[in-house]
């Protein structure tokens, strides 16, 4: 089980949070897509995804030269609840920024 501090630290970084927002659609996303959408270099995106994988939020699959990521399907319910709450807060903050 992931330590709460490690999980919250992983969720607190804006690029990682944005990546999770993209991954919550349930599909696999190539690191190249995440890079392009989030405006991150390959090395930076890979480091962020490694953190998300280390705390147990995502799984990966190698596809030729790229790695594809998805949210971990078997995430413990307590971890999933935290992630969903943080994503909901992120959505609310984004909506407020857009409305301003």
Describe this structure as you would to a colleague.
- With 100 residues, the protein is α+β, with helices and mostly antiparallel strands.
- It contains five helices and three strands, in the order ααβααββα.
- The chain has a single domain, classed as Winged helix-like DNA-binding domain superfamily/Winged helix DNA-binding domain (Arc Repressor Mutant, subunit A), CATH 1.10.10.
- It has a three-stranded antiparallel β-sheet with strand order 1-3-2.
Précis, in short:
By secondary structure, the protein is α+β, with helices and mostly antiparallel strands. Helix content is 63%, strand content 14%.
Topology:
Blueprint: H1 4-12, H2 14-23, E1 29-30, H3 31-38, H4 42-54, E2 58-63, E3 66-71, H5 77-99
Antiparallel strand pairs: 1-3, 2-3
Stretches with pLDDT under 50, minimum 5 residues: none
**Reading side by side through the largest sheet, how are the strands ordered?**
1-3-2
Average pLDDT rating: 92
Q: Please, how many domains?
A: 1
Examine the secondary-structure arrangement and name the CATH architecture. Answer: Orthogonal Bundle
